[in-house]
Specification:
The chain is mainly α. It has 24 helices and no strands. α6 runs parallel beside α8 (131-143), α12 packs parallel to α14 and α22 packs antiparallel against α23.
Amino acid sequence: MIYKLRAEVIKVVFLCISVCFSSFSQEQTDNFSNHIKSLMIDGKYKIAVQELDSILQRDTSNTNACYLLGLNYEALADYVKAVKFLSIAVRIQPNNEKFLESLGGNYYSSGLITEADTVLSRAFLLDSTSTHIQILLGEVYMNEKKWAEAGKIYSGLIAKDSGNSFFYQQLAQCYSNLGNSGEAVKYNRVAHSLNPQNLKIIIDLTYLFYIQDQLQEALDILSNGLKYYQRSPVLWKWEGDVYFKKNDFDSALNSYHRSFYCGDSSANILKSMGICLYQTQKYSYAVNFLEHSIELDPKDFITFFYLGASYKALNKLDRALYNFEIADTLLQNDFHSNVYMQMGAVYQVQNKYKKALDCYKDALRENPSDRSGIFYLAAISDKLKNYNDAQKYYKMFLDNPENPDKKLLDFAKQRMGELKNQKLKN
């Protein structure tokens, strides 16, 4: 956006050339003005630079020659030299908003964002009505993550031009980064209505609906977007993610497949397909996709976890344990209890009750509120005839008023009664 704007400024700058050379006679000024004008219109910026250099060699204080030289260097993408000559012009005329605007734009193009902010803020104070200055300053604020300041700029631009989808899109991004998802959705909706084929707006709006659990709205936006971008792997992936969040794993798998066939063969898409296949109990197919995902990304603990779970479902318990152990070394802290629970279940099937007990204890340590983990600790302790521990864990399980499984609850009550009677007899 900013480069397009600067190019437009350069194309029209010849309008002020006729007043640039006050040291010339009127006839000389007119002739030279027309000459420079023609060069700039034809894009012959290097020749224009040579001509303007000759002026500065005779008159080093010619402000407008410095300004035009800066613009020609900008057109040649030589921003360092553009800044050099535009700085001279600003030093001589520090309150010329046109000079400040051009200098600020070239600072921005050079990556000197702080300097761009300083100069463009001065220009804005001098001329707060200039659309060009507002657009440039808005871009700078966005780059600096000054979301509130950028929001004010884009609100002002919308007041001038309510039909520009880009301004609404930028304002929506400001609100999103300020944590105001409601306003972000509001302005992205307007942007989408003005420009329904803009891919970034489609993705931004989908994301906002997704994080707010407005999943049907997200699917509606994606459905409309896919009319224009039928082979977009990004949109198909997003549709898969939305269906996944709805626990509609068959639809999610279909969308992930489409993303894959449209060009996304990443570890992430293979993992997503593998998890959907696991959730739909197609364990052998899940193993295939998850193993291919691991080949591309051998450090994703979630992939190893679901690979282990798939092998467990296929009763390939050694392979299951192997993948759970890898997941345990890679995973993030909030996922540890899930791995320990799965490992405990595998050891329990293998009748390795002491190892199962250790895993369930680890799971309880990581997630003390996991009621199923507490129950299995009680049951395994009971199996190993550690009756004191069994009673302790059964009591912990029963003390929770929100146990979801009535069968487990009834069993725990029965065993607690039996263990108390056994203790009394002894």
